[in-house]
Amino acid sequence: MSTLAVSNSAADHSARSRPRALSNLLLFVAALVFAMVVIGGITRLTESGLSITQWDVVSGVVPPLSHADWAHEFALYKQTPQYQQVAGPAGMTLAGFKFIFFWEWAHRFLGRVIGLIFFAGVGWFALRREIPKGYGPRLAALFVLGGLQGAVGWFMVVSGLEGRTEVSPYRLSAHLLFALFLFSALIWTALDLRDPDSRRARLTGWGGFALAILFVQLMLGAWVAGFRAGYVSNTWPAMDGRFVPPGIDWSNGALFAMTHDLYLLHFMHRWWAWVVVAVLVVFARKVRKAPGARRASIAIHSAFGTQIILGILTVLSGIAIWLAVLHQATGALLVAATVWGAHELGKYPSPLGEGGSSRRLRKGEEEDSPSPGAWRDPLPSGEGR
Length: 385
Prior knowledge:
- The protein is mainly α.
- Helices cover about 65% and strands about 0% of the residues.
- It contains 11 helices and no strands.
């Protein structure tokens, strides 16, 4: 009996370690996506995104190595409206071009690294038949999402190569939001894999509501960044001495103003943040009531508190690059914390105000304790004894 018990224990440990190892891989990839979001913020703030005018998936891995290579890339950049109307008149030199080229190249290079690590890592688990049942299609979908993110990024860059001196704010927002969606999906899948005894979490009403409210703020933030609307006011809480800025142009209608006017976009972004705070305070309290979810609740409070402070400081600084980058990075961390909280609620949604008990079963407990007579011997008489 002891030999059989040891064998079963070893098999059980192996079965549990494989999903956790795959979960760790996905969390590592999510961390790389986070780094890419940060580098993307630097790329945007340093006006580096249009420095590479071609999308060479393979050859683009290697940056220019000789002076002739650099001169060729610089000549391509000189053909863009951004150089002809902005960078050129400002006196950009080859040294300045190398600086912006580096950030765009690093951004693209990291994207390739992420794809390679995900494909190779998940492929290794697949070859060893260690992907849990039901996760294959989800992992394949994550890989496809990663590839689409690269395509969306190039779609964004193309918008700034002809007729514009910068990329489309709407394509920029699509690129950022797509990245954050991939980031969230990686985290959610990794969390599902970490506890093989639990059913997969579902998105509850409160989880979906909190993420939707946060999505609006992220979209507004991306539009503010794309339109450079952050520069229209460096005071807080008032804008140009008034709560509602006087420069809003309503002549084309409210909807047009809400999607194009720099003053109104800035105003909406800074005050919708408090709607997000109100919702996340309630949401985090609900998360805290879930057994074992206290850390997720603390993460949510810490992230939105830090984000509010950084947002105000970024405005007061006149959009200092380092503060703006921290603001974007903390926004991504807030997404991660909110996804974590939504996942905790989704493990056992009914106990949290939807008509059930608040008790979560602990590992090793039975849902219904059977009567003594209900136990049956799992082995035939005399076998394994």
